[in-house]
Amino acid sequence: MEQHDKVYDLIGVGVGPFNLSLAALLDEIDEVEPLFFEQNGTFEWHPGMLIEGTKMQVPFIADLVTMADPTNRYSFLNYISKNERMYQFYYLQRLDIPRREYNDYCQWVARQVESCRFGKRVTNVRHFKDNEEIFEVEVTDVASGQVSVFKAKNLVMGTGSVPVMPRSFREAPSEDVFHTADFLPNQDRCRKASAITVVGSGQSAAETFRELLKEQRDCGYRLDWITRSPGFESMEESKLSLEHFSPDYVNYFYQLPQEQKDEIFANQGLYYKGISNHTINDIYNLLYEYSVGREELNVGLQVLSEVKDIKPKANGKYDLECYHYQKKESFTHESELVIAATGYKPYVPDFIHHLEDLLEWDEEGRYKVTADYRLVQTKETSNEIYVHSGISHTHGVGSTNLGLSIHRNKVIINHLVGRDLYPMNEKNIFQSFTV
Ligand SMILES: Cc1cc2nc3c(=O)[nH]c(=O)nc-3n(C[C@H](O)[C@H](O)[C@H](O)COP(=O)(O)OP(=O)(O)OC[C@H]3O[C@@H](n4cnc5c(N)ncnc54)[C@H](O)[C@@H]3O)c2cc1C
């Protein structure tokens, strides 16, 4: 085991957009020396869903740095300029850049920010008191298995989320029943299938269904889309609704009692779980086009129906045991492939639970978080654990929204340096959430 004696100001766990933004901003700030570890060999942003034609759900202004510092060299516009695409971008006249381009931009930043280390998984963290209080961070090189230990005054968790599959879906072979997160590596398999069913009705479900629908007539498969929701509902995207993804709403939400927060958040699904209007329009337009001349569609869209179980059949296909909960009727649906668009959940690594005694947890077993994104500790220490992931219960509906990542990183940096390096505006939106 390799032991490093140097004490870093901050060690970051995970390099997704949230921690990459923090790393990029800190790259310009000499007084904080950070190090960030990412288990993947390179920066990858949801690679299985980088479908051609999909676009960001936030304007490019919500890049990794601009909302904190528009002059920062890691801005999206500088990426465009350095790649000599300024005129093409200018004529494009779009704020919502392709998702593949956002990933390429982040990779461009990740290649330059020296504090980011790839192919390194953080496998344990210990809070330790010797001459001074520090964290010891155990890091495993993914390729060689070699373990090193690094020291840090503070940590920042940016471990994001992981795909969720219902238990009954997990029993089938993963080449036949897989999550939308694995869609692109399985797209060729889809092209050869006789029948495909997408289960769920969020944005990932709609993008996958749209992509399959585009090729459905050429490939000749039967295509179905099943959801337990009452409809293929659109996301609430009006400009005033988008103000829920503002620092002002985060501040308002944070100070509510926990019980009230849980109730409010449970009813805000359409702000982030529904389908973008443009995706629904694309799907509808394709269906309409295909139906010209009363052609048999060989496509099904089924709402109000939950897939309860998936059973293998002798013919190599699967029976999906479904239940229509308004008619209270069960039915069976046959498919060769099943794509689960069943969402994601926050990923909190086990080692955080090893710090159980240091941290405060609520009755639901969730960690407590301060308004400025630090885990609440049981005792006074000089070390903080800042957190980006798993904070919807404390900071609400915007917790995973990329448009708020810069605000959060400004708050974290201000706390780290002990002064308002980034001034905070009191009012950023037109409406008031509080009185
Ligand atoms: C398909 C998809 C599209 C989305 N599109 C948008 C959008 O357009 N606009 C928007 O606002 N939001 C969007 N989101 C939501 C959100 O912005 C993303 O989920 C975003 O990636 C969150 O960033 P993150 O940095 O928190 O986590 P992630 O991107 O999930 O990154 C976390 C990283 O941590 C690494 N990691 C985890 N554990 C360890 C460990 N122990 N050691 C080292 N590394 C570790 C992981 O490998 C991963 O790379 C989208 C989500 C999905 C799933």
Question: Can you describe what's shown?
Answer:
The structure is a single chain. With 435 residues, the chain is an alpha/beta fold. It has 2 domains: 2-160 and 347-417, FAD/NAD(P)-binding domain; 168-235 and 273-340, FAD/NAD(P)-binding domain (3-Layer(bba) Sandwich). It is built from 15 helices and 17 strands. The strands form 4 sheets. Strands 1, 2, 3, 4, 5, 6 and 17 form a 7-stranded mixed beta sheet that branches. The longest helix is centred in the middle third of the chain and has 17 residues, at 203-219. It is globular. The termini are far apart. The mean pLDDT is 96.
Keywords:
alpha/beta; 7-stranded mixed β-sheet; globular; FAD/NAD(P)-binding domain; 435 residues; 5-stranded parallel β-sheet; 23% strand; binds flavin-adenine dinucleotide; 2 domains; single chain
